[in-house]
Amino acid sequence: MTDGWINIALPKGRLGEKAYDIFESIGYGCPEIRESSRKLIFENAENGVRYFWVKPSDVAVYVERGAADVGVVGKDILEEKGFDIYELLDLGIGKCRMAVAGIKGSRPDPELTLRVATKFPNIARRYYRQKSREIDIIKLHGSIEIAPILGMSDVIVDIVETGTTLRENDLEVFEEIFPISARLIANRVSYKFKNGPLRAMCEKIAERI
Fold first, then answer.
1. Confidence category of residue 1, pLDDT binned at 50, 70, 90
2. Which helix (H) or strand (E) holds 188?
């Protein structure tokens, strides 16, 4: 892509829309992105920005590989995958937390191997390694809250936003692992060769948030 442009990968959905609002508010708008369209790439030559929508879990891949100079991604994805990128700013949006949860009022036997259902096996392994706890990871992709209810796991490690789903299924948070929010990330090579424009963008965002 053209060198003079700043290429920005945004996650599809509500988080990406909130992130775009921030970019627009600091002068990096692209009116075409507001139009109802099936387009995936949007350009504004006047501002020198090019946006594209991608699956949230793919944003950091586009940035790491250099297809995007910067992108917006949740801290959970960065912690799970360990991408080779720069983390520039905490945007303060998409706030939630990574937590351990289980059946309300229960506590697993500390002497037994802990069965952990999760979409985030790397985060779970690191967390329990620090606690010197032996675990059995059960990797799931859907509604993992069902696992402890059906007795398949002792706990789950998952993102908790409001806690409503947990409460409605008689589950509760046992431990918080770390807070989550959206982060502005940058490709390492882009940050070197487009340092001026990217630093200016970061400074404007920092003032905005």
1. very low
2. helix 188-193
